[in-house]
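fold-stage: in
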Amino acid sequence: MTIPAFDKNDLNQFDEPADLLKALSHPIRLCIVRGLMRKKKCNVSYMQECLDIPQSTISQHLQKLRSAGVVTTERKGLEVNYILADQRVEAIVKALFGEEECEA
């Protein structure tokens, strides 16, 4: 028996991967993820300084990434650092930009 190439009864398996790709589908969010791949962890102030865009904009993008499970936070006193939470994201970004562009 052969497995059909397309199966309308099996569409649910695509929901979570599609949500992950949606979370990555903005230039600023891709930049944030690649930056976290290079730096490993980072706070919003550092991102704002590097990207030269309003802190509120960065925070909104980080919230979308966090909601999708792409990033998580690590608190040290008052400082909140963001780190990647889903290793699949690294593979996706490396496929898009190349391995050497994603390393520090």
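fold-stage: in (second)
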Amino acid sequence: MLRLYFFIGLMCLVKSDTHETCPSFTRLSFHSAVVGTGLNVKLMLYTRRNRTCAQAVNSTFLGNLNMTKKTTFIIHGFRPTGSPPVWMEDLVQGLLDVEDMNVIVVDWNRGATTIIYSHASSKTRKVAVVLKAFIDQMLVQGASLDDIYMIGVSLGAHIAGFVGKMYNGQLGRITGLDPAGPLFNGRPPEDRLDPGDAQFVDVIHSDIDALGYKEPLGNIDFYPNGGLDQPGCPKTILGGLQYFKCDHQRSVYLYLSSLRENCSITAYPCDSYRDYRNGKCINCGIPQKESCPLLGYYADNWKEYLKQKDPPMTKAFFDTAEKEPYCMYHYFVDIITWNKNIRRGSITIKLRDKAGNITESKINHEPAVFQKYHQVSLLARFNQDLDKVATISLVFSTGSIIGPRYKLRVLRMKLRSLAHPERPQLCRYDLVLMENTETVFQPILCPKLLM
């Protein structure tokens, strides 16, 4: 009997793709990448009824696809080693957790697996043609273009764009996760993802100086940490393969965080990352009744608002923590000084609650300018949200290693939460900050007049 079970299990492993009991993502070797692979597109359907065992579908067999529900396609990008994407299963399960939908994994690993990037990129339009044939059959069976959502990663983002163009922009939504830059940067709209490719296009740019696309490609384009170096990613080639792909992949992990209940990343529409860091865009540029856009799955909450803009496009910036779930919590630190002379420098602020939890923000992206009796409002970003702050500490630094140590005479400091504006604002008066020396104090509630 044991031998029989072993034989059945072995047969499941060696069955061809079309007859697999539970189809799985194509797994290829680095050897395949060296010799190259011909294109073969494999579609795998997951639903809440079959979350762990996919059903192979194609344009002649739609399987258990429910035409009345949303259908989300996940399209991966370049695969230089032939391995399956490490994030794929989490993305499938995360989507099924938030909504009862059809999820279709578009496996074009045979085609994307090659060490020659241009060979993979040249196959993107052919993948789009295969998806068009499948969607055509969905429409015949009663599906609506409004309910079709495509999530494309890297080259996959442009594939989604090509599909959208074939339907004259009538697809419900496209999300581009760090759309590929090489061979696409500077290309005209017909040769890449474009805001007109769906009713709503949102894009996360996490590696604009290397593998990603720099310019806006959607109705809303999110630039985490300015779209450049992502916190927690290796800064040098000593980080190995992660040095090359960590920033690029961060877009996927940020999207994944939006599918979890413990983190909703708020972004701030702004002309530039510098303006965002300088606290110039924290009200989203809209009436307070509108909440700021959320990154990821719920970004389309801003769809109707953006439709009113001409053109219906915006860029949004935010910062993240180094590790999952990546959320940062924004506060304003308002400082009025009474030094006779102008002081320039940075502020480090540390918050501590009664339980001993500590969170810190270094506001040092550029020197703040403190003038007598002028209020300076600094945007502080913390990776923990402490409900009740027991103590605050401040450190002032001019960044000078030699020369005199300066003092910053603070007439009033005020701390106010952007995420929770209903919370009491905290103040402290008459402080003298010695340069590079931590000053710890207990805050008091600000008079309501100041709020």
